[in-house]
Amino acid sequence: MSTETNQNNNPDEDFLVVENLTTTFNTARGPLPAVGGVSFRLGHNETLGVVGESGSGKTVLSRTIMGLQPRTNVEVGGSVRFDGHEIVGATEAELREIWGTKVAMIFQDPMTSLNPVTKIGKQIGESLHVRLGMSKDEAKARAIELLTLVGIPSPEERYEAYPTQLSGGMRQRVMIAIALACNPSLLLADEPTTGLDVTIQAQILNLLDELQMKLQMSVILVTHDLGVVATRTDRIIVMYAGRVVEMGRTKDVFKDHRMPYTRALLESTPRVSNPSHTRLKTIPGRPPNLLKLAEGCAFAPRCSRATEKCSQERPNLEPTGTDGHYFACWNPLDNQSAPVSSSTGSTKEFGEDNVRS
Amino acid sequence: MSEASKNVVLSVKDLEVTFRKGRQRVSAVAGISFDLYEGETLGLVGESGCGKSTTGRALMQIVPSTGGEIYVDGAELTSLSKKEARSLRRKMQMIFQDPISSLNPRRRVKDIVAEPLDCWKTAKGEERDAIVYDLLNKVGIDPAVYGNRYARQFSGGQCQRISIARSLAMRPRLLICDEVVSALDVSIQAQILNLLEDLKKEYGLTMLFIAHDLAVVKNISDRVAVMYLGKLCEIGPSDTLYAKPAHPYTSFLLGAALEADPEIEQNRATLSGEPPSPLHPPSGCRFRTRCPFATEKCASEEPMLRDIGAGQQVACHYPLVGSHQ
Amino acid sequence: MTNTETPMIPNEIVVEHPEKREPIGLFTWICVGWLAINLGVALLTPFLPIANPKEMISMPSMGMSLDHLMGTDSLGRDLFARVAWGSRISLGVGLGAMAIGFGIGGPLGMLAAFRRGKLDVALSSVMFTLLAFPSIIAIISILSMWWPRSLAKIILVVGISSVPLVYRVIRAATLSAGSKEYITAARVLGAKDRRIVFRELLPNVAPTGLSFLLFGVATVIALEGVLAFLGLSIDPNTAPSWGNLINDARQSLNDTPQNWPLIIFPSAILCLFILALNFVGDRLRSYFDVTEVKL
Amino acid sequence: MLKYFIKRLVALVAIIIAISIGSFFMIQLLPGDLATSILGVANTPANKRELYARLGLDKGLVQQYLTWMGHVLQGDLGKSYITGESINTSIGKSLPIDLEIIFLSQIVAFACAIPLAMKAARKPNGLFDRLSNGLTFGLLSVPSFIIVVYLVLIIAIKAQIPGTGPGSFTRWPEWAWLFTDTGMFFTTVGHNLTSMVIPTLALSIGSFVVYFRVLRSDLIATLQEEFITMARSKGLSSRRIMWRHAFRPSSVALLGTAGINIGGLIAGGFVVQYLLAIPGLGGLLIASITLQDYLVIQSTVFVVAVAVIVINFTVDFITTLVDPRIARD
User: Which of C8, C14, C22 lies at the smallest CB-CB distance from A54?
Assistant: First the structure.
């Protein structure tokens, strides 16, 4: 395992360093590059949003970062350095040391992610007992505390409940309690609110914010919903066909995006603020088949700005000039009206307002 | 949009749907009334379990309604014989949430689209094929390439296009869309929403659009109705209702909706708790247990849907917006 | 056999035309071929140039030779001819009994699942009670007292005793297919019951039915072996079944232990036939992705 | 939970009543002449009438059924028309033998199936999984009567292991011996266990194959579930994940299969008993079928059916303990 990251004098940027990460599934129909070379950095207590549609590889990315990908039929390349640990290539036994205690994950569907035949209290207490060596009584007491922390009413009673007896929102709260049981410093949240009602979604997102502040965690929020990342993240990554097509501070990406896909995604999303019957801009076609990815830019076949070069050569991530804002496109959109300086300032302000200090 | 001069295509009066769960009774839809005018789209929005899908299904008589009346072009649906109801239902069609499961995986696309024609025996042979060809073209599925494929070979978005083609084969007056885009990705969702808008114009459809996504509903609807725990809270023209919600629940719902824009300040005051069980709905106003403005009156007296002007109706004793006059 | 080869790929990855089907595979074709050969032999036995199975044509307990491919039994009868004729009985019992089982249980199961309500409750409570009754005991008791024995009676008794099981499987498959949205969609489009049953339900129930049919035939062929051992199958002197042949061999092997082909051939052919049925049934199930119905 | 249990119990009683009716009428309605088999050549109309009156067979069928049920409810299954022996005694002698064979074979089957299935499921499609999966699929296609025939040929005849062949069954010692003559006790137990080798093997192979396959495929499916990924992400050891998280949900299917299988063994194990000349219920049933001993057949069928149902009921009950979801539906 590499420990050289510790020597870096800017720890805030190097809490999590992902470099050229690839995840390829070996299928009966050939290799399927679900994640095709992703690099980014994440600082302490920072919130990173990963946005993409189905098949963009965002879920696979989050699992590969954690090292949770199954071992068979999968090839992982590149590097994930997390707080002095190299994840790629580590054995399951090595990973087990940091799972739960340093990095934890919450999953999309709380119904299938909770063991249906075990009481929820036991599921929370399990890692306390096994990983932290608490006695069963201590674990139970702490589990009830955690249930209170995540806002579950009458936690003593709910301790005895089975997952099927809870509502969707309650189950997601239980998932959060399980993930946070051992005080991890990095939380990966994979579509944590998909399938929940809007009011419950707001509750869960507020809870996550609150807990992030309280417990001092970095969070990677994976979602398909641009609304979820818009106000809850410091930076975002936009993924398409397994690659990062744009990344930067949230405000920069929303207001000053360069990649046509990012714009298309934003324009095809209906908005509450738009008047009724606003014609949506659509992206023609469908996401590409990852088994038959062409040489060039994966978005080229659907892109209105595509040129011949786009289908021949794959664009790499280029800096825009704004700090930390990158895009991958041969024919980027023009620098938009929003002045760079003010947007940087307000992003910071925004971050302090809503996420933490 | 809702001028009296317009024809009423669908009129619902005090619709009730009660399910039996063991010895208990769950009233999924507890008496709702609304009118649907020719050529308009009414959005029906609410959180899961509020009874919006059950309403749609009761209108199609997929689940039996246990009370109230449904008028389609003036004819009352529930009192008709099975046979008469069946033929009246030709005027109404429905598209479902799960695009993949709503197509039979073991049948060919062109047969799926032709299903209504075959059922009603309205077109045969070349005429039938021509209609199918035309419909598939309209929804953007190339019939020459895909017509003979099986439904299981298509993605969600394509399946939804096929479903739409099928629902239009009988040229219905009324189309009920039940969460038709909620299983789809944003880019595909936009395609389907635009397609529905186009087809609505072309076929002169009247639509009931049921969904949980507030932005989607606003985008497609002329008027929007908000449901909570089996009751209508509020109904009104989309732009008015979204700009000036009169019912506290509508206001909270809009506040919780996330906008894809980091500059819009999110309303952090969210509703606390979860909706009560429909097995034991609260007395009076059903929202009162979570409503910050609730008083004793709300517990004792059920608020009726009343006009507050500009086509907006609200069921609340203390609406946030007074009269529009 | 296993449809678990590539489950590691998360659902979110879009593969164009997501066909889950695996290639059919060589072994499946071998099994199909083996089933076809047996069926062909069973159908054509009377016309094949083989020895008379009842005639003592040679020395008893002869080993394998070109004249007698599988040797002869303790009475000097040609084993190959007896196995070939035996396939007629064994396959006849298997297919005949399943024809009765499916003929009665299939429509009833579909009807109950389609109509639901009181009819379903009534039919199901009768069928599930019958299912609780150990059918093999009933079969043995009935056959042991219903003289004289004949192929038709065996087929009838075994067939009827399989009705509740077929009913359960078909009902479950119909219920599962019927809960799909496309059935509701068809109804909404105005399809009448008949159309829904034949156009929508049947094509989706048929794969389950077919694979269960193969398992059923395999089970009945094994069951006939049990009956033969207890002396309850048809009289081995009129026509031997595979079970009869194995039973005969078992008894005569005490005297002539060197004549092992006598037991090896019929039992191997019986087992391989059952194996092929099971394998093809299993492949059918995964080919049509019939996962929701547990057989 | 209690409500569910009571509901099941009511259903159980209803099914047992249905089965008593079934076993009674099935026997009564069958062709066959009781008088001939009892009286033989003395089957004159007068004798027959006298016999029927003595046995109570001159009354209506419903009357006969009620009389029989009345006795059964008092714990008396009646006496054989032919041997005159009490059926309670006959079944009392035979049933323990069935229970012993089933008990031993199930222990062996579970002891082999659970660890092997765990091993196979851990690496689906790995070498061990492919081998075990293929092998068990092959074994699945070998009916138990063929297994017995070959086991007898190999163990008892070829390998010449004494006390394992047909007819070598030895009973357990009587209770009193346990305290007076330990040497004799162990000798008889030893004999008994030796004589159980072939029947136990014969039944355990079939059970093992079924259990292995059910548990393996269920485990593979369970291990794909998100809650297993969740458990891994907590940093739990794979051992703990296998046993605490994967095995318990998977054992539901295993239990269900075991219930059906054990029921099948009680009813279907008699081929094995017949081939090995073991005097269990199967032996009793076949002997009475040969003698056309109606009442014994009827009672044995009834007892076996009740045993099968009680076992299924017990398994269902255990299943609800393992998986709390079931009782709540």
Answer: C14
